[in-house]
Amino acid sequence: MDPRQIEILCNELGLGDLEIAPHALSGGLLHRMYAIQTTSGRYVVKALNPEIMARPTAMENFIRSELIANRAANFVPALPAKTFNGASIQQVDQQFCLVFEWLDGKSLKHSEINSGHCKTMGSILSSLHMGDFSDLGIVNNSSEERRLTDWNFYLKKGQESNAEWTSLLFENSQMLNDWNVEAINSAMQISTDMVISHGDLDPKNVLWNDSPVLIDWECAGYRNPKQDLIETAIYWSENGAGEIDQDKFLSFIDGYKGTVQNEIHANWRMILASGFLGKLDWLEYCLKRSLWIDCTDQDEQKAGTQQVSGTILNIKRYAEKINEIEGWLNEI
């Protein structure tokens, strides 16, 4: 999104005149973020990825996610996009975007997260799961049949383009397929117990000042509450090397339990197996970006390439930790 488009956006939405040139913010893996300061205040403009917005369901998904974010703000500290004339999604030329109030705060690095943060986030997630979204008309598509990913297709494309991750994908393609099968079977079996949740509540999507605020709601929708709990607890208890700190993990679970005031029971093996699904989906998207299948520019292609190998290794680490995590949960 160029400065001219941002200036047009400010004029059309009545945000005032730009006082300084917009500057790009780091951190967005899918979209571009810009900080702007106008005569009326400070804002963040999120320029939505054109490749994603070209998908048939993209606009509907963003409208739905902002409906959820606005309602969630009644239950948890959430930051939805600003609305103008009743709409959250804005358009300049062919570029769609969201506009947010500026928040003074930062996302925590793994080394900065302590057990207190984890307990707080567990409590917030529980409050979100108990929130009432029933009148929004959000459709639950979680029971739709999932397809197996054809990892050999991406392997062949990688070999043709001499991609740097080709050997790693070749070495792990059979395991990726096995985990894919197990994840789809498990996800189908837990799809009858669903709540609406954020969907991607890792540390980068929470800004902290004196208290946390939940941002970036684009993945919001129906989730199995136990699977969402475990996935989010892992996000908050991992260190920079992907190892899971047991004390932080259990603190997150404790924070969640403290709000629901109840024991938490589940088939944890099935819940943990379903956790492969989101990770495998992300891997496929990274592969598509790396191979120019789902990509708009060279920077995005480079980012996709860089993330493929790390994502495969993260999935392998997760597989290696499942038995231990299941043991922790069964002891609670």
TrEMBL record:
InterPro entries: Aminoglycoside_PTrfase, Kinase-like_dom_sf. Residues 24-248 form the Aminoglycoside phosphotransferase domain. SUPFAM superfamilies: Protein kinase-like (PK-like) (SSF56112). It comes from the Bacteria. This is Phosphotransferase. The lineage of its organism: Bacteria, Bacillati, Bacillota, Bacilli, Bacillales.
